[in-house]
Amino acid sequence: MHRCVSTAEPRGILFDLDGTLVDSLPDIIDSFLHGFAHLGLTAPSYAEVRALIGQPLDAMYTVFAPEHHVPALCAAYREHYPANFHRRSRPFPGVAKVLRTLRERGYLLAVATTKRGDMARRFVDAMGLGDVLHHVQGTDGFPHKPAPDVLYRALSALGTGGLWMVGDTTLDLRAGQAAGLRTYAVTWGTHSQEELASAAPDELQPDLERLLALLPPRG
User: Is pTM, for the whole model, over 0.90?
Assistant: First the structure.
């Protein structure tokens, strides 16, 4: 397992991307459903897909389609999404301000997402967040959340220990807990407040503003 080892005082704040920093679910689900029409398969409902957001793409498709169709469904998604990811996706209100303030206060900020690294970086830049984040870490060839691997790699890239993991799913929270971080659940994303509460986060909030009270300027 790839861990961050740093003797410096921890400064790292990690964020999930989809449903946490960016309201991107409509574009993700539209692309997910596109493959079913493309292959002539019966599509699941929007709500059924939404409930699985945050899991790897192939695992999601396996829930709704015979296994032998999964590679073609994944391929259809990966063709459709890069051309359509920006149609309805937008940062949640206040996100850029919170990130910029935390950066100005001396914290190191990274995304830790299940998205592939290349797509995650492209997405962050398209949403106008690339200049306020120090690193964007995707999940490429190693275990996905709730395993903490992507968090360790993000912290290693930052060169610091971690303080908080911020996310909108129980997968994010369990990954943060496994990495020994405090966890902040935001309720404007994928999982309901009740589902998030079941993972016992340190903070359960409707937005990111509380982070500014929890993370004062560094001396």
Answer: no
